[in-house]
Please model this.
Amino acid sequence: MYSFTAAVSLALSSFHAFHPRLAQLARRVFDEDHYDSELRPGKQGIGRCIFVMPDLTPWILHSYHGQPDEIATMAHELGHAIHCMLAAHHNILHWLSSLPLAETASTFAELLLIDHLLAQNPDPDIRQMLLFKQLDDAYATIMRQGWFTLFEQAAHDAIRDGATVATLGDLYLENLHEQFGTTVETPDDFRYEWVAISHFFSMPFYVYAFGQLLAFALYEQYQREGEPFKERYLALLAAGGSAAPMALLAQVGVDVTDANFWQGGFDVLARLVVQLEGMAATAE
Ligand SMILES: [Zn+2]
Model:
């Protein structure tokens, strides 16, 4: 268990180690009493960062119980807040980043926190929980979203040819079987899971997968380059939504058409898998 004060100081010191500016901006959220961490009946549990106007420090809503993975959530939400504070000089239309870059600062901040915590050699249970959370989230947001897109493509084609709900269910189940193979049992009821996935209807071809993998790939670049990467990264966040994602990334030297850049993101994940497997092997 980590007290709220301990969690804040861990998050701030992990940001500070990267760049004092990140810690300074994150501190503003606490100084202005914009972080609602209190547990209250009926309060939404998961973290959420709320942006109102460029010149207002964002608000964060998060029910904090003291678990280590909640410090990662804290870092994640603070990452969102830092992103919009760094871009606060833009007008309201260019201030917030577009969807592909919307999870960059949050995921990156989470990775900074995880590395910081792991470097302090916490006990094996905490290490395992942190690594598992990272991989679990990455699966849900990178791989699963990719499979969702394949389903959406197939569904849109089938609907054009007059598909029924039953056909879409068959397509969905086929997608799940291909995705999980023999590793996960997929009961027949899951053929209707797509009905409950709201972004298929409200935001077709959601691109969050791109954003998450982008943050991992940028983190890999930071690990390779060290110091010179930092100012470029801050410039990327400070650009907010003032240009198209591809143009902003090109300005900071990232070519999103280069497969090697994306491979860097998967390399970060591969290292996490090796670490987690190593821990499981020693525990046996
Ligand atoms: Zn987020």
Observations:
- The longest strand covers residues 48-50.
- The first helix runs from residue 4 to 18.
